[in-house]
Specification:
Blueprint: H1 9-24, H2 29-42, H3 47-59, H4 64-78, H5 80-106
Helix pairs in contact: 1-3, 2-3, 2-4, 3-5, 4-5
Length: 107
């Protein structure tokens, strides 16, 4: 495996790990990403964790309405504080992802 030559080697690694997990899971890609998003909320994951999954989730057809539905479905289990935190982390994750796209466009 080659070392990352990008400006964000750790983020690049996490994105590859996410893609690899989709490839080896017995779940269908969309099911896997639904579970991952729910798990991120359940563990109160930081924004960067959402950023590494946003692209993969979008690629399998998961949109903002679906993510909202996931958060509503797990709220009684994980609690409102975790769902509120997940919402904020998702927004921050989107900002990270957009900044990454901007840096690619600038190159």
């Amino acid at each position: 495996m080659e070392a990352s030559t990008g400006e964000t080697p750790v983020l690049d690694l996490l994105v590859r790990m996410t893609a690899d997990s989709v490839a080896v899971s017995s779940l269908q890609p969309k099911e896997l990403m639904l579970v991952r998003i729910a798990a991120l909320a359940a563990v109160d994951a930081p924004a960067i964790s959402y950023a590494t999954n946003i692209e993969a989730a979008a690629a399998v057809g998961i949109d903002a309405d679906t993510v909202s539905g996931i958060l509503a479905a797990i709220a009684p289990i994980v609690g409102t504080a975790r769902v509120a935190s997940a919402t904020g982390s998702l927004v921050e994750g989107l900002a990270i992802e957009l900044a990454e796209l901007d840096s690619w466009d600038a190159n």
